[in-house]
Amino acid sequence: MKMIRFIPLVLLISLVLTSCSLPLITNLITPSGGILFEDDFSDFSNGWSRVLEPHGLMNYDADGYRMWVNTPGYNYWSTAGQNFSDVNIEVDATRLSGPEENRFGIICRYKDAENYYFFIISSDGYFGIGKVFQGQTTLIGQDMMTRNAGILPGEALNHLQASCIGDNLFFYINGLPVAMTTDGDISEGDVGLITGAFETAGVDILFDNFIVKKP
Q: What's the pTM value of the predicted model, to 2 decimals?
């Protein structure tokens, strides 16, 4: 089992949407299973964070969205400028380089830097569901990140799906369910992506085919 060691959360790079009316309307009129939001990262104007600094980078790259974390203990995250309650979120994620002991995945119900849920895996085969709530980072239903044989190692593409439905949080990896837990602290918010480094810098992840569906 892997200790998450998810603190310090020392970097906030996110897009804050000042008006949430359009996503809320979309949520109301979209039927179950319908697409609420999708992005293949081919349009550079869609609002994902674009940052280059000594700690790392976030940018559109190689027909996807790249997060490179060049400082131990750091996380980068970016959100899509949406606001939903119940969602199914899917994304393809590939490790480009760097240590296999890493963390990357999906964010849901992002209110601000101190309140959101995360669903993460590592390239050496571990996963976790957790939250940042009132600034405190914890795993939910796990003491540590847990190994799962369904995670493809190394530079293989992994398809991740996170479902936030009521108080229920589900995590699927490469089409297979790996965890379900419950938590009622955060009811709605933005959707996004997260990548972080443990003790070794240079975590380099490429995301593609980000899709949000109504359950």
A: 0.88
